[in-house]
Amino acid sequence: MAATPRIEMKEITKSFGRIQSLRGVNLELYSGEVLGLVGDNGAGKSTLMKVLSGVHLPDGGSMKFEGQPIRLHSPKEAKNYQIETIFQDLALCDTLDVASNLFLGREPLRLFNRLIDKKKMHLSAQQELDRLGVTIPSTYATVENLSGGQRQSVAIARAVINNPKVLIMDEPTAALGVKEVRMVLELIKKVKQSGVSVILITHRLRDLFEVCDRITVLYEGRIIDNRPITDFTMETLVESITAEKEAVH
Fold first, then answer.
1. What is the Cα gyration radius of the chain?
2. How far apart are CA 114 and CA 116, in angstroms?
3. How far is it, in rounded angstroms, from Cα 151 to Cα 145?
4. Per the domain annotation, does 48 fall within a domain?
5. Do residues 246 and 240 touch, judged by C-beta distance below 8 A?
6. Is 121 within a domain?
7. Domain that holds residue 87
8. In angstroms, rounded to a whole number, what is the distance separating the alpha carbons of residues 108 and 118?
9. Which end of the chain is more exposed for a tag (fewer CB within 10 A), N or C?
10. CATH no. for residue 169?
11. 249 residues of the chain, pLDDT tens digit each
């Protein structure tokens, strides 16, 4: 790992009214690392990632990107730091084809009339999908007609086209079949190999052992465990996630 974290979050707090969602979270993420972020519902995972992606402004704490202090006021500012997020709803346009979704807002234009160069767009889309090893019937296929795994792959590919340094993935394998889960996990491995830092939020704990380097466990807005994946078994990971809850009852 590099000496300087790509992302460093210190003492991050966030409340919504009387609800304290984050209570002083410290998180580090390194170049080319896949970090699994786990915890029960309400642990603060999504809130923490929305702080990192610029959706929420924290109440307290500080953040650094590659050693430099940052303060993100919007998702656009996060994207300027090459921080990309794939939320559970994927935010794909179902009525558009694959290529149009991949290059939405960044479509290549013809020089002479400034109209979208569809031939170039579809060629570039296929090249990107091939580079990532993503199998889609056609870049002309409408997204609403794709399988769940194919839709997830399109969402990941769209984020990767923007050359992210950090990729946040919220439940990327939820509701997918075995073959589709395998396709998404292989895609995460390829993204990692290119040096991208990945934060993976998932309730499918077995997926963590496939792709993660490290696991961070959240409970009621606090980090209660943070170790290399090699320090965990499935049993000890479940124990870590449930330990605080059991201690309360």
1. 19
2. 7
3. 9
4. yes
5. no
6. no
7. 7-92+145-248
8. 8
9. C
10. 3.40.50.300
11. 458 999 999 999 999 999 999 999 999 999 999 999 999 988 999 999 999 999 999 999 999 999 999 999 999 999 999 999 998 777 899 999 999 999 998 899 998 888 999 999 999 999 999 988 888 999 999 999 999 889 988 998 999 888 999 999 999 888 888 888 898 899 999 999 999 999 999 999 999 999 999 999 999 999 999 999 999 999 999 999 987 655 443
Residue 210 lies in a domain: yes
Q: Which two tokens stand for residue 104?
A: 């939405």
Neighbours of 246 (CB within 10 A): 8
What gap in Å lies between CA 26 and CA 28, rounded to an integer? Answer: 7
The tally of domains found in the chain comes to: 1
Give the tokens for residue 48. 């923490």
Distances (CA, A) of 193 to 46, 150, 187, 188: 25, 21, 10, 9
- On whether residue 97 sits in a domain, the answer given is no
CA 220 to chain centre: 21
Q: Judge whether 158 and 101 are in contact, CB under 8 Å.
A: yes
Which residue type, as a one-letter code, is found at position 86? I
Cα–Cα separations (whole angstroms), residue 20 to 43, 44, 74, 228: 10, 9, 21, 28
- CA 161 – CA 129 distance, rounded (Å): 10
Which residues touch 181 (CB under 8 Å, ≥6 apart)?
Answer: 149, 173, 204, 207
